[in-house]
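INSTRUCTION: Work out how this chain folds

Token vocabulary: learned, describes local backbone geometry

RECORD BEGINS BELOW THIS LINE
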Amino acid sequence: MSERRHLTDRRQRGLRIVPVELPAPAEEAPFLRPNRRTRVRRARRGWVGRAIVLLEVTGGMLVVLFAAWASYSRVMASERLRVGRVEVRGSHFLSEGEVRELLGPAVGENILGLDIEALKARLRASPWVAEASVSRTLPDTLRVEIREREPLALAEVDRLYLMDGDGSLIDLYGPRTAGFDLPIVRGLAGRTGEARRERAGRAGALLRDLGTLGGEVSELEVEESGDLRLVLRGAGELVRMGAPPWRETFLAFLALRKELLARCPDAEYFDLRYRDRIVAKRCAEPAAARTSGAGGTGGN
């Protein structure tokens, strides 16, 4: 009824009705691909685009890397950056030529390509060098600052060696080092390894503690007990030292030296191992020479 009423209304309004027949839905062929083909093509096109962008970026990076490498090669090959000057500070015994020799092939090499830590290690390999620092100053200068070991004694081992305050052997004593006037350290011969290092270190520590007073010492012997026996310059008195501190004890002895020699002219040695007295030994009989006056010889 509603459909007839609808048609009647349309006729009354003067509208023409044209019937249209809709085609029957066609059956899908069983072997046709679905309409998703377009999406596959778009996906393929997106992958190709990304690949092209990736190739462009990679190519750009390769160009940049090549340009950087070319610049680096030009810098490393520059004659202006080859080491031509070496400035040395802190060297007293080693000459500038010897320091340059320790640096090895660094002279003439490109200053930017040098291994600074390796150069420091080469310098420290010298027994004369305690500490070393190396720095660059563009375009062609190396600055080297070293702290040399200071010889304090001549250590008698198989031969005489210069020895520092740590007990380290520096160099052979010979014509090149004959200008050093130093006390001789005995008691090291026949010892090897840790035993010799311990004895040498003890002797070096005493001389380091004495400082300028070490000029009064002609010889120093490390005894089996570990005590240190000194032979003084001049009259050649023997002085036996005990445990540290040594400087105060030795300084007090030097202040009383003339008095002790006057009271014990035939003393064989002076023993400073006691806290409140100095013992002077005459031949086989010891005699105690107690300090008078200003109290104290500062013994251990």
